[in-house]
Amino acid sequence: MEKYRVMEELGDGTCGCVYRALNLENNEIVAIKKMKRKFYFWEECMNLREVKSLRKMNHPNIVKLKEIVQENYELFFIFEYMEYNLYQIMKDRQSPFTEAEIQSFMSQVLQGLAYMHKNGYFHRDLKPENLLVTEDFIKIADFGLAREVASRPPYTDYVSTRWYRAPEVLLQSSAYTPAIDMWAVGAILAELFMLCPLFPGESETDQIYKICCILGTPDCSTWPEGMNLSRVNNYTFPNIFPANLVDIIPNASLQAIDLIKQLCSWDPRRRPTAEEALYHPFFHVQTWVPCPLRDPLHSKSNYSEGTPPKLELKLWDCSSEPDELGLTLAVKSSVSHLDTDHQLSEHARKELLYYSGFHDHAGQSVFWPLLFPDHSAADEPIRSSFQSGCTMDSQVYRPTGGVLQPAVFTTTTPQPNVLDGHTFGSWMTLSSPIQPGLYL
User: Which intervals hold domain Protein kinase (predicted)?
Assistant: First the structure.
């Protein structure tokens, strides 16, 4: 350890102390974690979970272990140096984070977490203090409680800091999964918006109570395994109705609220994996496509006979007003036999509305889901000839100042039209008071 000069203490934890130090050989600033217990054999050092996990992982969003030093029965871990942890940044923050900043932080955390889970480990102690930040980069640190995914239960029930501890761990499940990391991610995501913890329990019992105050009381339909765990532990959930997260986190977009709800599901099987969470529209407002476009007039039986039909969408800016956007959406079907009656499936009621080319930002693109309301006419046969026009009001979401708001689009389907020599199955003319701007 002669080549390192300790400059200051950064923190004192249960297992060790962390110092900022200078590498005298190359003038590099590093972080040194000095373990508190004694280690008499090198093999003992190499068998530590933190060492085993970090030696196997190399990812830009996971802190890098540079060196391991054993000296006089003391063990030192030499890490790359990061300036802050996320808790310090939130504590010193004077104004809320922008949604773009939160998206950046959480996408990096999820990328590191997805890599970790894919390589056979889950962290078990995710919290803001263990997320290290330098400038705009964030990395997962402190793998002292990491465990192999393939390891066999029972697992210890005392893992993770209480505020970020999943309910199955609070109820002493001995067979939990990497989904406990996803619960912690959901709590951290909410905290980035609120700048205070979402579930600040003062004890294990109070922690469950705080969770019930937000999510409502679970039951056999929402979390059947939890009901068994509560009976085994002789615990009765308080009878509480769920709160409205929009009221609790008013500065979060609807996509952010939805992602928090999914990550903080009572049932761990309903939580998305880290990789799945990265595809959530919260991170992909501009490019996310929830399902492939398809022709609802094409029978399902024809899909198995060959390549699925293609659906072409073309949009034209028909507005003459500088403050209002008029959109014309042309749908060209590849189905050649349009004189056959088909049933409009339930799944076909959700398509995409795509818009490209704001007045001053032609390179930007935004997707909005176009949801058709349920009504009795939807169950009737739809004729491809469209002998009579139909009008449907659809709720969609459009970004306004970074937060998605509901807007009403009116869709009109008149007689078939011909444009540039192409026959289109239908025309839909949409207009909406969308102000020109760049939405992220």
Answer: 4-283
